[in-house]
Amino acid sequence: MLIQSDRSYVASLRRLWHRVFGDDEDYINLIFSEVFDSCDVYAQVCGEEIVSAFYLLGCKIRCGDKVYTGKYLYAAATLPPYRNKGIMSSLIREALAGQKDADFIALVPADEGLYGYYSRFGFLKSMYRYSCRIQGRGDGRTFSPVSGGKEFARLRENHDGAMLCYNAAVSDYAFACLEKSGEKVLRLSDRGYCVLDCAEKTVREFISADQEKDLELLRSALNGSWEVHSPYDLSDYGESRRLDGGMIYAFSEELKKECLSGRGIYMNIALD
């Protein structure tokens, strides 16, 4: 059922999140402080406990001059004793049937095997990202941190191709999640930024309106071999692969044609 943002369920939702995903209390609290009051929550309640739930967060897809408004299906979770009973399937069907103004619902499957599961509901494998392993030069260059969710969203808009973007509240939440996870969100220039996971030597996202210039700046700050995720094919710098980035259920026929075109819509990876 749709429980909207009823805070009487928060304690149970926190327990579900912790049991399924294992995150600590501070991290779990972010969704309830940043976006809970403005998102839709679909949940199955058994007795006094929520046993399955997910959140629909506000987002848009930009394709050229066209902007589609929609929802991002996030943090789908079911307690182990209640799995394989059709509970999550029923919640997803209810959410799809309940959308009146949305052009789409997007999601990122938690693992490769779930692409088949979500395709049964009509979700299309239509989002992508590139992964490229590049060699840093280690010149010792440092960059200023991105100041917050507003600047984070502005810098992401420097990618002018088809992409999924969050609304203001969800951008704040995504930024807070990155900081809480210990990742570095850095401004390369006024037209580019990156997210560094130093423990994994991974650039979780690189976006720029001047890719060649800002990638050279980024390489000067990296030591050794790093994996870089981005909307761009960076094969001039290393071995590059195009990866599945997520799925879209399109209510808009125009967007559905775009999803089936094979061109792909870049999915940001801040919340996968």
Describe this structure in words.
With 272 residues, the protein is α+β, with helices and mostly antiparallel strands. The mean pLDDT is 94. Helix content is 29%, strand content 36%. It has 8 helices and 13 strands. The two termini are 24 Å apart. Helix 2 (25-34) packs antiparallel against helix 6 (168-180).
Can you describe this structure in just a few lines?
This protein has 272 residues and is α+β, with helices and mostly antiparallel strands. The chain has helices spanning 10-21, 25-34, 87-97, 114-119, 149-156, 168-180, 211-221, 253-260, and strands at residues 40-46, 49-63, 66-78, 104-107, 124-137, 144-145, 163-166, 184-189, 192-197, 202-208, 223-230, 240-250, 265-266. Helices cover 29% and strands 36% of the residues.
Whole-number radius of gyration?
Answer: 19 Å
Q: Spell the H/E element sequence.
A: HHEEEHEHEEHEHEEEHEEHE
Strand-residue fraction? 35-45%
Helix content: 25-40%
Descriptive labels:
alpha+beta; 13-stranded mixed β-sheet; 36% strand; globular; 13 strands; 272 residues; 29% helix
Topology, pairings included?
Elements: H1 10-21, H2 25-34, E1 40-46, E2 49-63, E3 66-78, H3 87-97, E4 104-107, H4 114-119, E5 124-137, E6 144-145, H5 149-156, E7 163-166, H6 168-180, E8 184-189, E9 192-197, E10 202-208, H7 211-221, E11 223-230, E12 240-250, H8 253-260, E13 265-266
Parallel strand pairs: 3-4, 5-13, 10-11
Antiparallel strand pairs: 1-2, 2-3, 2-7, 4-12, 5-11, 5-12, 6-8, 8-9, 9-10
